[in-house]
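Hallway conversation turned thread

IA: we were arguing at lunch whether anyone had actually written out S-acyltransferase end to end. Turns out nobody had. So, for the record, here is the sequence (364 residues) and right after it the structure tokens. Reply here if something looks off.
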Amino acid sequence: MAKRLYEVWKGKNKFIFRGRLIFGPDAKSLIITLLLIIVPVIIFCTNVARNLLGETSGNIAGYAILMVTVVFTIYVLLLLLLTSARDPGIVPRNLHPPTEEMCYDSSASIDVGRQTPTPRLPPTKEVIVNGVPVRVKYCITCQLYRPPRCSHCSVCDNCVERFDHHCPWVGQCIGMRNYRSFFLFISSSTILCIFIFGMSALNIKFLTNDYGTVWKAIKESPLSVVLMVYCFIFLWFVGGLTCFHLYLIGTNQVRHDAKTVSTRRTDNKKTTYETFRYRGVERPQVYDRGCLNNFREVFCSKIKPSRNNFHAYVQENERGFTRGMNSEGYIGNLDGNRREKVEDDREIGGDLLKISQRHEAEDA
């Protein structure tokens, strides 16, 4: 019986509604995120907003504050769902891995200065992006050369296009297809924090006018102060994250590109890892189209359709998403390498025997 793609998916994702919604393996963290948003809003609506309604009785402003809070919270939760339950840009695993090339292994037969050719794939290769060569890596798990700006997420075990990071608060990778909703989510959360903080402070001001002192106003509505402190702390997180991603969007970078290696080698030479990481940092002109065009690309461009139809049926022979070398083939190759090495050793041994015999004849 044919199965659907999400039932045989090799990644660590979690699916609901028969593969129509896809989450990361840490999707349970969404519960914490929802509580961090919903609980303060409920406290605000049932206490602070109700006090503001009493202070502005007969005025539409009090009802407007309550309505704005509810509608904007629903909007933030919708953005959270779009970020968490959407395919972030997963690259399908290769059903037909690229053909291995014959490469010389310098570590083999090093004592006699001979190199043994072994079939293997180069770990990296260069592709041209906007006229500039960019190095891409081969993913052993997905058996493909990753597209530029693509990286393999160790949490979800998938290669993700334009991979930014894996966010545990939304339980999903942030990539090409959900980056816009992620940025709108954190920026809207920042605005919501500022709004609740300001309205709570306004409530304290009204109570201060009624009771004469700030201390009495705080005793009358301690939850207003609690909300102000909570929003102030939370604002440092989402507000700072929003500013950081504004910089990344303006320069057309992703967090994955902007990473740097804190530990340097003492001889001031870059390792292969450092060279790959620094490549995107040293050449921002590869993707940078100017600040205005960079923002247009993120917010005005059409989101590409998913490469995976998780709800679709797959044939029996399509389930081997990671068709790698099986154990028998691997052992066979090992045996072949051993046989080649034995033959080389025999050949070398025969040459040494002939040389020693010739020296003995000359001495005689």
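OS: looked through it. The mean pLDDT is 77.
IA: good, adding that to the notes. Residues 327-363 form the longest helix (37 residues).
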